[in-house]
Amino acid sequence: MDVPVADLPGLSGAEIAENLGTALDLLRKDGILIIRQGIEPAMLDELKQMATTWHDDFLSGEVQNYSLGDPETTATVVPDINQDTFVEPRDKQGFRKWNMASKDARMLPLVDVSPLYDVIHAFIGPDLQVTKTQLIVLPPDCLDSQFLHTDAGSLSDIVESMDASPVMVSAQVFLTDLLEPGMGNFTCVPGSHQQRYPWSPDNPTRTQIGTVPLGQEIPLDIRRQVLARAGDVVIFLHSLWHGVTPNTSAQTRRSLILSYGKSFVRPYDYQQTPPLVLKAGTPRQRLLFGDLGGWGWQDGCYYHLPEDHIQTLAPGEP
After folding, report:
1. Is 261 helix (H, G, I), strand (E, B) or coil?
2. CATH topology for 10-313?
């Protein structure tokens, strides 16, 4: 049985601007919100070129997969779940590059672009930061292990009440059309963000990086795969059970992942504000990457942001 196609409603940027509350209600209910054509064409073209260039450099051997050998990125050890991939030809490997905000300035305008940032800010609250910026490329017949998971390691076992603000939310920005099933589509179990992930009894430490792909026991008939166009954005709770379908098409699937968390959550793929962000970022973008200026380091600085920081983080023109 194939994973059914999602019948989730999508909203345009204009619809979100007119009624942000509807978008938040859908996100609370389903754990996922689809923004149709949420990225403007000029920005989308820049991001497509960025992704293509990085993947071409990987195929030619100029850069490594999984941020290996990159001193600016914390991901220095390949998880067991991905070890089998690295003995395969490069054109069959899923390509993942972490901490893209430290590597390419074209990534920076995406982190606070409207309407994506409007939804994230309203949902998490004004005390937020970017925790991860990632590029993912899945070639045709990609040999990566497929699995259904929740996000962020130790956060993966936390399930939040939808009556309050969440700890972490992510967004996937699609750079290629995925108009048919089986093209490396985003896949999830709608509504699962309010249930604890069904950990296997033989995984007592709840690791996400072991040798056995997660979620094999989750029935296919409750999963849904999303059809999308380049420029569409999927926002989802970290606790949503999600993953990807195999890419059985002839097209390479390119996308970007952004994760946002409360300001006290440790970043996922950087330790300090990346130098490129300090150099090229706007005040809001620098603050989103933890540059607290004269406010840091002080006791409680990431737990109690001052009023001017809260104002800087507000949506609108930076």
Report:
1. strand
2. Jelly Rolls (2.60.120)
